[in-house]
Amino acid sequence: MKILEDRILRDGQVLGHDVLKVDNFLNHQVDPMLMEEIGKEFHRLFKNEKITKVLTVESSGIAPAIFTGLAFGVPVVFARKHKSVTLKDELYTSVVYSYTKKTSNHIAISKRFLNEDDRVLVVDDFLANGQAVKGLIDIIDQANASLAGIGIVIEKTFQKGRQLIDKEGIHVESLARIKAFEDGKVVFVNDEEAEDAAK
Amino acid sequence: MKILEDRILRDGQVLGHDVLKVDNFLNHQVDPMLMEEIGKEFHRLFKNEKITKVLTVESSGIAPAIFTGLAFGVPVVFARKHKSVTLKDELYTSVVYSYTKKTSNHIAISKRFLNEDDRVLVVDDFLANGQAVKGLIDIIDQANASLAGIGIVIEKTFQKGRQLIDKEGIHVESLARIKAFEDGKVVFVNDEEAEDAAK
After folding, report:
1. Quick check: is A108 in a domain?
2. Which residues of B touch A59 (CB under 8 A)?
3. What would the pLDDT profile of A108-128 be if each residue is shown by its tens digit?
4. A176 sits in which H/E element
5. Considering only CB atoms, which chain A residues are within 8 Å of B33?
6. pLDDT digit string (tens) for B15-53?
7. What's the ipTM?
8. How does strand B13-15 pair with strand B19-21?
9. Is the peptide bond prior to B59 cis by the omega test (within 30 degrees of 0)?
10. Which among B31, B66, B113 has the least Cβ separation from residue A63?
11. By residue range, what is the domain housing residue A45?
12. Residue A192: inside a domain
């Protein structure tokens, strides 16, 4: 997605060799006009998947997910993060390990908001090691709902999340795919490479 | 706001004598179409206030705030909650006490995203005891920014938050104002009462 890549090049900050800071338009300060375009793009990419619900994790996933829900005209559910979980009878829960923070969080959603009739589109801001997505897929399985696809705003292809998902044969779309940070600069997977990979 | 009041009557759950659960359209499962209308309504109510930024707190404030930002065409910043705060040089921080959870959280925003030129609209899902709003006002003061107004989705007028804000002469708009829960039912402040109060 050209406007997203341009925005990453303009406003993203590369920290070390594997961190991209985009807190001025995506996950602290948020650009709602860009989020609206992201929602429309996910709709274009998944419009044949009969989506009934969009699922994400608080907090950074909410903005892109909510505009995706708007574009599809369906509800959005955000899983909540907890240090520990009580009231397990009412909740689907999973555990998400954060490589960045080196801690585990429980994520949970109320059983009332996901069921076997749902075709779920998972939306998240980043795909790196795939732990958040893995936790959400676990919850979708517990609810006997169907995973219809995964929409990622920014993917880091050099970390292992994408591999983990591709193994499962899931329909994944990432709006910006970063293959490396070189000398503090972002290098995107270009279209040719993407086509080669799809062959 | 009629569609919001109707939705509260239809889908809200009253718990005890002071809690309204709206987790099926506002703060866990979210209705993006309703959020879009809420954003437009805040724009209508504050359109003369020369808003440059919308400020809220994660996570439940994000959905209504992001559509308000869209309606104004301005960025949205969400304060992050932390148990403790490090890196204080880079952050404006405040402490928010939760009467429901009986715990204190720090809230923080990066100094890069708020400055003396900003005219800030604070948006939040609930106004009850006013502690979150108080923390956000504290942060706006620290940044020498101007507080242009406060937009609340659901206000409980029988708790002390509104009084606390009114004392300061701030422009506040609440889209649904609840004066009591009677026999498990929501009772709104009706328009006559609102006009009387304004006299």
Report:
1. no
2. 58-59, 62, 78, 80
3. 999 999 999 999 999 999 999
4. strand A172-182
5. 70, 73
6. 988 899 999 999 999 999 999 999 999 999 999 999 999
7. 0.94
8. antiparallel
9. yes
10. B66
11. 2-76+118-198
12. yes
